[in-house]
Amino acid sequence: MIALVTGATSGIGKSTAEIFAKNGYDVIVTGRREKRLAELRKQLEAKYKIKVHSLCFDIRKLPEVEKAIASLTNEFKKIDVLVNNAGLAAGLSAIQDGNIDHWERMIDTNIKGLLYITRQVSKLMIENKKGHIINVGSIAGKEAYANGNVYCGTKHAVDALNKGMRIDLLPHGIKVSAVNPGMVETEFSVVRFDGDESRAKKVYDGFQPLTPDDVAETIYWMASRPAHVNINDVIIMPSAQANSTTVKRNS
Ligand code: NDP
Ligand code: 8X3
What we know:
The chain has helices at 11-22, 34-48, 62-70, 100-128, 149-169, 188-192, 197-202, 212-223; strands at residues 2-5, 26-31, 52-56, 81-84, 131-136, 174-181, 233-236. With 251 residues, it is of the alpha/beta class. Helix 4 (100-128) links the parallel strand 4 and strand 5 (131-136).
């Protein structure tokens, strides 16, 4: 069995690659940071005795996505599970003050990048007559919160695409699911705040956020249901978080 996990250099994607490897899958890991991909490959191969193939590319660039998928050997083209995880938030501003570069990075990565790779991999799954696509959405795709406008918009788009691709791929026997987490402590907030680590840390102050492993375990559970069962959609939250903005913190 083969799983391709986008954005495996950090956070949820890295944990997801590991849990598939631990369960005997060969994995294809992607991201832009080549050194991290090489380290992950070495680590997973040594620990789990499975095969790891790494693809270093920017998911926003269609020619890079096409070249990366085309470069896979026939063996690695038989992808059973695609985890569409690569994504980011950039900034947190009122709509009138939004930074256009932030908007474009989020739209290009979270929507267009997800589409580019899905188009390539779903064709391979159709040839193979099976497959499972698991989209990483967010609680931000289920509700909007102050200053989250464009990030929430991209994750609402993922929610709609999840439903749409499930319909289109149904005749081909391909399952489509989404996992929508609340707050998970990863590099997400450091990226959102352009590298400001102390601001990022405050996001998770005074409560226990989800870990990347919590989400990875859910993704693997979704992927490992029997053939006749599909988990369409999951929302997973820290117990201390009721919705995007209501969090019980110890003061
Ligand atoms: P991280 O920042 O830790 O990981 C993001 C991953 O996405 C990295 O591996 C990064 O790789 C990859 N990525 C980002 N941009 C690109 C790009 N242009 N091309 C290729 N890869 C890219 O964050 P998380 O693990 O938290 O985020 C993973 C997903 O989970 C995202 O879709 C996010 O929106 C979603 N999510 C996160 C939540 C949270 O609270 N953390 C909650 C809900 C959803 P590299 O930099 O090497 O390219
Ligand atoms: C990340 C979750 O709501 O903290 O998708 O932006 S949130």
